[in-house]
From TrEMBL:
This is Flavohemoprotein. It is an enzyme of class 1 (oxidoreductase). It comes from Sutcliffiella tianshenii. Belongs to the globin family. Two-domain flavohemoproteins subfamily. In the C-terminal section; belongs to the flavoprotein pyridine nucleotide cytochrome reductase family. Consists of two distinct domains; an N-terminal heme-containing oxygen-binding domain and a C-terminal reductase domain with binding sites for FAD and NAD(P)H. Coiled coil: none annotated. The gene is hmp. Heme b binds at residue 85. The record marks 84, 393 as: Influences the redox potential of the prosthetic heme and FAD groups. Residues 152-261 form the FAD-binding FR-type domain. Its EC number is 1.14.12.17.
Length: 409
C-alpha cells in the first residue's frame, strides 16, 4: 500500500506530466535503448520513429498518476496494454529496467524540480503500477500456454499459401511447422510475428489482425504494404517482397480484447483500409455461428484497386439471413463506376451513418486509420450512440481520438 503522502505527491505531479509527458518519454526511450539495446528486439521501431509509442506511454503515465489511488479505474486500459505486452513477450524482469529509466527521464527533464522526495514517491508508485501489469500479464501467459493447442514464447509457423488481395494487401496462410493444430483465436484478435531481416541488426516484431474465422488448421494475416511514407514499412515490404510459401515465421499465441461478442443484437462492422482485417474475421464468424444476426458491413477504401476481400465479403453476406454490405470509395476509378462496385463516393458521413437507422441495442465495431476512426466515432457520438455500444481497435499504440488525454501504450 502506498502512503497518503506518496499518493499526494504523485497526484500533484500529474499536471506536470501532462505538460512534459512526451518530452519525458522521448528521453526515456533514448536512454533505455542506449543502455539496453537488446530491448530493440521487442519494440516496434516504426512506432518509435513516428513518436506514437512516446505519446502512448506519456498518456499511460499521466493516467497512472491521476488515478494512483484508484487503479481499478484504469484496469481496462491496463488489460488492453497487457495483451500487447504478452503478445510481444514482455516479461517481469523488464519492469525494473523500465522503472529505472523512467525515473532517470523524470529527473533529466524536470531538473531541480524533481526533488528526492518526488523521485522516491514515483519510485514507490511505479513499483505498485508495475506489479499490476505483471500480475495481469502472468495470468495471460498462463492462459496462452494452457489453452487448447497453446504454446509459450514464439513458435515456428510455415507459410503455406500467399495470396494477393488487392494492389496493396497480401494474405499469408500460416500453419505450425511441427504439424500441430493452431490455438483457436477470438474473432478480432491479432498475432505477433517475429522476423530476422538480412541487414537488420535486431529482430523485428509486428502485430497483425487475423483475417479469417477461427479454425484449428491455419491462421491468416492480411498485410498492407506500407510504402506511402518515408521510411517505408520494413516488415510489410519484406513480407510482400521476400516471404513466400515454404518460408518460416515465428508467432505468438493470439491476443487482444477487441473481439466480437456472442450476442444476437444487430451489429455494425465499420472499417477503413486495412482495418477490414479483424472485421472480416468477425463477419465470417457471424456467418458460421449466428447467420440470423442482423449484420451491416460498412467498408471505406480509396478505390477498387486497393479494396481487399470484395468478393469474399459479398459471398459471405449471401449466407446471412439479414446482412448488408456497403462500400464507400473516396476516389472511384472509371472501372469502379462501370462495374458498380461501390454504393457511395467520398467519405463516410454522419448522414450516411444516420441513414443506417440502427436500433438502440445495436453494437458497433470500428477499425481503420486514425483519422477515419476519429471521424466515425464522432459521427456515432453525434447521432447518440452510447459509448458502451462502441468498440474500436488501434493498429499500434493507442492514440487520442478526441483531443484529450487517454490511456494506451
Amino acid at each position: 500500500m502506498l502512503s497518503k503522502k506518496t499518493i499526494e505527491i504523485v497526484k500533484s505531479t500529474a499536471p506536470v506530466l501532462a505538460d512534459k509527458g512526451v518530452e519525458i518519454t522521448t528521453y526515456f526511450y533514448k536512454k533505455l535503448f542506449e543502455n539496453h539495446p537488446e530491448l530493440l528486439n521487442i519494440f516496434n521501431h516504426a512506432n518509435q520513429s513516428k513518436g506514437r509509442q512516446q505519446t502512448a506511454l506519456a498518456n499511460t503515465v499521466y493516467a497512472a498518476a491521476t488515478y494512483i489511488d484508484q487503479l481499478e479505474v484504469v484496469l481496462p486500459a491496463v488489460k488492453q496494454i497487457a495483451h500487447k505486452h504478452r503478445s510481444l513477450q514482455v516479461k517481469p524482469e523488464h519492469y525494473p529496467i523500465v522503472g529505472e529509466h523512467l525515473l532517470l527521464a523524470i529527473k533529466e527533464v524536470l531538473g531541480d524540480a524533481a526533488t528526492d522526495e518526488i523521485l522516491h514517491a514515483w519510485g514507490e508508485a511505479y513499483g505498485v503500477i508495475a506489479q499490476v501489469f505483471i500480475d495481469v500479464e502472468q495470468e495471460m501467459y498462463q492462459q496462452a500456454e494452457t489453452s487448447n493447442a497453446g504454446w509459450t514464447d514464439f513458435k515456428e509457423f510455415e507459410v503455406v499459401r500467399k495470396e494477393e488481395e488487392s494492389s496493396v494487401i497480401t494474405s499469408f496462410y500460416l500453419k505450425p511447422a511441427d504439424g500441430s493444430k493452431v490455438s483457436l483465436h477470438k474473432p478480432g484478435q491479432y498475432i505477433t510475428i517475429r522476423v530476422s531481416i538480412p541487414g537488420e541488426k535486431y529482430l523485428l516484431n509486428r502485430q497483425y489482425s487475423l483475417s479469417d474465422a477461427p479454425n484449428e488448421d491455419y491462421y491468416r494475416i492480411s498485410v498492407k504494404r506500407e510504402a506511402e511514407f518515408t521510411p517505408e514499412g520494413k516488415v510489410s515490404n519484406y513480407l510482400h517482397d521476400q516471404v513466400n510459401a515454404g518460408d518460416k515465421l515465428e508467432l505468438t499465441v493470439p491476443a487482444g480484447d477487441f473481439i466480437l461478442d456472442s450476442g444476437r443484437e444487430p451489429v455494425y462492422l465499420i472499417s477503413g483500409g486495412v482495418g477490414i482485417t479483424p472485421m472480416l474475421s468477425m463477419l465470417k464468424t457471424i456467418a458460421q455461428e449466428a447467420p440470423a444476426r442482423p449484420t451491416t458491413f460498412l467498408h471505406a477504401s480509396k478505390n477498387g484497386t486497393v479494396h481487399a476481400f470484395y468478393d469474399e465479403v459479398k459471398n459471405t453476406m449471401e449466407t446471412l439471413q439479414r446482412g448488408e454490405a456497403i462500400f464507400v470509395y473516396e476516389n472511384p476509378t472509371v472501372e469502379d463506376r462501370s462495374r458498380q462496385k461501390f454504393h457511395f463516393d467520398g467519405y463516410v458521413t454522419e448522414e450516411m451513418i444516420r441513414e443506417l437507422h440502427a436500433e438502440p441495442e445495436s453494437k458497433f465495431y470500428v477499425c481503420g486509420p486514425v483519422p477515419f476512426m476519429r471521424a466515425i466515432l464522432n459521427h456515432l457520438e453525434n447521432i447518440g450512440v452510447p459509448a458502451e455500444k462502441i468498440n474500436y481497435e488501434f493498429f499500434g499504440p493507442a492514440m487520442d481520438l478526441k483531443q484529450k488525454q487517454s490511456v494506451g501504450a
